[in-house]
Amino acid sequence: xxxxxxxxxxxxxxxxxxxxxxxxxxxxxxxxxxxxxxxxxxxxxxxxxxxxxxxxxxxxxxxxxxxxxxxxxxxxxxxxxxxxxxxxxxxxxxxxxxxxxxxxxxxxxxxxxxxxxxxxxxxxxxxxxxxxxxxxxxxxxxxxxxxxxxxxxxxxxxxxxxxxxxxxxxxxxxxxxxxxxxxxxxxxxxx
Length: 191
What we know:
Elements: E1 6-12, H1 18-32, E2 38-43, E3 57-61, H2 72-79, E4 83-84, H3 89-96, H4 98-107, E5 115-118, H5 126-133, E6 136-141, E7 151-154, H6 155-165, E8 171-175
Parallel strand pairs: 1-2, 1-3, 3-4
Antiparallel strand pairs: 5-8, 6-7, 6-8
């Protein structure tokens, strides 16, 4: 008789989304414990915890943002031979970069909001962007997950205020689209 594997839920991490990840990990572990043996591990370093056996453990990563969703954790899991839930490293790397992801989905006919990119908030030409994209905008880091450092703004004053709080980095400004927002999960080509 085959024994069920242990489910190891990895949560926490060390980025801006740590607290969200810890809450997500706890909720997932609580749900899985009804049917499985579950270990909940708070990751605090960019390494896999010692003592995990790829032959008896299935990993469920719930580390948000950098390290957890950018392909780094997935690469470590794949290199060590672990089965794990979620997207593979290549998909994770692509999807964590919002600019690359938008380009990729546009190649297959999915429309996205008009956008522009910047690194230095002091170099942003407010008037040109407002003219091109309109007054309702979304500013977000290209390479962070969740809603970390996301700004939903309306007009010049809110735009200036948002830019004054932003550090240099990789940023995207998109025209805000009003309407219903939906997420569709796809697994092995089926939704």
